[in-house]
Amino acid sequence: MNNQKSHKNWKTKLHEIIYEADTPIGKLFDVILLIVIIASIVLVMLESVRSIDEKYHRFLNISEWIITILFSIEYICRIIAVKKPLKYITSFYGIIDLLATLPKYLSLIFVGSHSLVALRALRLMRIFRILKLVQFIGESNNFIVALKASKARIFVFLSFILILCTILGTIMYLIEDDSSGFTSIPESVYWAIVTLTTVGYGDIAPVTPFGQLIASLVMILGYAIIVIPTGIITSELVKDSMKNVQTNTQSCPNCSTGKHRDKAEFCYKCGHLLNED
Question: Global pTM?
């Protein structure tokens, strides 16, 4: 009975360290993990510089293997710490953790695949948990919801822009000659898109006074058009702002569901006790 309780407490403690960022030890673990992730990314970047790789190849290679082994141990511990390992393995973070670990092993078989360890950069998303910025993750989710809610209006807006660029491109094709770069209607539409979005590569430019006048109007119109989709999405975000619920980084030890309300005792998804202590 005591052994079973000890085993339970050990797994609970491991889960708290690895998955929780609201506790001091959990925060420390994630901070160390982030430092290691950043170090691994720096090593990959340095290895891509030929002069540095030629001089320090052995050191860089050994360092990458050490980090890969550490990530492998961490990945195994994450699987052990949860009651439903498959839930973690198939989750977003689980897939990212696996992809961040495999490339170095694959480099033993496939030459050049070790460069894929740059995928570890995706693991930096854990910084949201460490800095207790979960609300920003919530805001990103709200942003996605707002995009979906306003997709019809955005589609109409983009359709209008496409039609406008087609008309402007056709007009410029009729006004300018081939020497200006307006050799076809598609080329002219490309110029209209580049100008309207205020990118301005400069590879195609009007030379006639009337063409330059139209170009000036398109540039001014571009600044006015940019704010329209922002206003559409912002209006949806304002509607959802009242629905926000303050959550924390606590993860259910049973189903690995996160983002529970502050002071919650049970998982809102499976009903399992969040803190077994």
Answer: 0.53
